[in-house]
Amino acid sequence: MLGDRIKACRKQKKISQTDLADMLNVSQAAITSWERGVRKPDVDTVAKMADIFCVTTDYLIGRSDTPCYKHIQPDGSVVLSTQKDPPEHMPEEPTVRTDLTFTVDFPRDRKQLEQLVQEQVRKALRDQRTNQ
Q1: How far apart are CA 60 and CA 105, in angstroms?
Q2: Inter-CA distances, 97 with 82, 94, 114, 124, Å
Q3: What is d(CA 11, CA 14) in angstroms, rounded to the nearest whole number?
Q4: How far is the C-alpha of 71 from the C-alpha of 12, rounded, in Å?
């Protein structure tokens, strides 16, 4: 599954294997072996690919079937959305819509980011239930 997702994301972004290899500082043969499922990239490389493809690591490794696109804003905040294109207007506060689009401050630590996103989703779902 990982290999298929790498290949699909790479093609969607119109990135060649050689270009992706250069971006990741690995050989083109490594990209080929990942896409064919012969080998697997290390965790740091999966994270770098997720950033390059603007999707979550969960999507790349198959833990999620919905690509959650990451849109980095000029102020450094990150918007996670199921929409490929970033929303035109970003709200001041996190909001829940059918596509679960919200804005969070981007921490430097990946684990902290994951915790923050989980908290924001929980909060947004609670608020949505309260307003119904």
Answers
A1: 23
A2: 11, 10, 20, 9
A3: 5
A4: 16
Neighbours of 52 (CB within 10 A): 16
Tell me the per-residue pLDDT of 11-28, one tens digit each, with 9 for 90 and over. 988 999 999 999 999 999
From edge to edge, which strands make up the β-sheet containing 69-72? Answer: 69-72, 78-81, 102-104
**Mean pLDDT, to the nearest integer, of 112-132?**
74
Question: Which residue, chain included where needed, has tokens 């490389």?
Answer: 45
Helix, strand, or coil here: 42? coil
Angle between helices 28-35 and 17-24 in degrees, nearest 10: 110
Show the tokens assigned to 13. Answer: 């972004």
Contact 71, 82 (CB under 8 A): no
Predicted confidence (pLDDT) per residue in 61-106, tens digit: 888 777 666 666 667 666 666 655 554 544 444 444 445 555 545 5
